[in-house]
Write a structure and sequence with these properties.
Length: 140
């Protein structure tokens, strides 16, 4: 199974000059925890709800005056569309991130995979394994 198989393809994106107030509105309306900053179709940054808290809310900055570029993590860790799920978990661990934009061979954004997506997949797989164990176990 590849990351593209479990990816969210409706990725919220923004430009460097969009205000953090606008990003917060998008995150709320779309119920997401991050927005990928793009140039064309290439991810150049990522802004998370944590970034907004640490760089806008806590210092009490005006969200209309702070841009995505000012708070984004530049050059976000990405993963290729045909990378496996285990490769994704290893990359998330290596880069200490909960979200990874997915890119194709030209570096174009094609989706995003999150820690939550991987936990849901793992839970489904564990449920399947539990069913096998239950079916094969003697009654108690």
């Amino acid at each position: 199974m590849t990351v593209q198989d479990i990816a969210r393809t409706a990725v919220m994106t923004a430009q460097r000059d969009q205000t953090t107030g606008n990003l917060a509105t998008v995150m709320k309306e779309e119920d997401v925890g991050s927005v990928v900053v793009v140039e064309g179709r290439h991810p150049v940054g990522i802004v998370t709800d944590r970034d907004l808290t640490l760089h806008v809310v806590e210092p009490r900055a005006d969200p209309a005056d702070v841009t995505a570029e000012e708070v984004m993590t530049e050059t976000p860790a990405t993963i290729h569309t045909d990378a496996g799920v285990f490769e994704a978990t290893a990359a998330m661990f290596e880069h200490a991130v909960r979200r990874m934009p997915i890119v194709d061979g030209e570096g174009n954004l094609t989706g995003i995979v999150t820690l939550d997506d991987l936990v849901v997949l793992l839970t489904d797989e564990l449920d399947n394994l539990a069913g096998v164990i239950e079916a094969e176990s003697p009654p108690y």
